[in-house]
Amino acid sequence: MRRAFSMIELVVSIVVIGIAFMSVPLIMSETSKSVEVSIKQEAVMAALTQMVNIMSYKWDEQQTDESVNGSYAKVLDTYSLAQLQCYNYAEGRRRVGHFVGDGRRKCYNTPREATPAANLGSDGGDMDDIDDIIGDSTLLSGTDAPFEDYKKEYGSSITVVYVDDNISNSDFSPSIISGSIHTAATATRTNIKMIETTISSAEDDKEVVLRAFAANIGEIKYYTRRVQ
């Protein structure tokens, strides 16, 4: 008895093989897209890490003098909104709503003004406040970048500007404050700085923009217990 394929089996086999070969380009395309998305996500994550690092610095150059800070930075004077100004009280200069007590957020005892908008930028390359990074262009990926394991080249450009701090509930009463944070730069100093990172691709001219906002709220001095 001779064994052989029937015509129907042969036709079915050809159809199955044809479908498999037709699926290969689609699978390759989807795999390529997945890799591309993964690469972009890594570049965005690298820029996000960079931005988080920037946010760890002082809000303004005027808060970097430790001899004036007394171990922690205070609220600076911007004079943008009356509701956010510092006032003289028996316990010292504070904003309305500040808690009284050592180590709490408060204003400098002597008025200390934030850096004017026109003067934001690097102060001798010391990199001790967030706007020192202005104009810095960093290569996030590629052979000359810190992250050499990337398959494509991405770069970031960073700017820091003051943005309008006046929102819809401008009396700052104890209620839910609604409204959008402004993203347009202002020519005057306010209580909000916007850090904007633009991630660009050298190959396809695409850009991704990340924004973060830092407020002029000073710092809290934390007390720690010494272990003997």
Task: Write a concise synopsis of the structure shown.
The chain is an alpha+beta fold and about 230 residues long. It is built from two helices and six strands, in the order ααββββββ. A four-stranded antiparallel beta sheet has the order 3-4-5-6, with helices on one face.
- Give the N-to-C terminal Cα separation: 94 Å
Largest sheet: 4 strands, antiparallel
Structural class: alpha+beta
H/E topology pattern? HHEEEEEE
Q: Considering DSSP H and I runs of 4 or more, what fraction of the residues is helical?
A: 10-25%
Radius of gyration: 28 Å
Strand order of the largest sheet: 3-4-5-6
Tally of alpha and pi helices: 2
The count of strands amounts to 6
Strand content: 15-25%
Shape: elongated
Uncertain ranges = 224-228
Summed over residues and divided by their number, the pLDDT gives a mean of 77
List keywords for this structure.
disordered C terminus, alpha+beta, four-stranded antiparallel sheet, single chain, two-stranded antiparallel ribbon, 23% helix, 228 residues, 2 helices
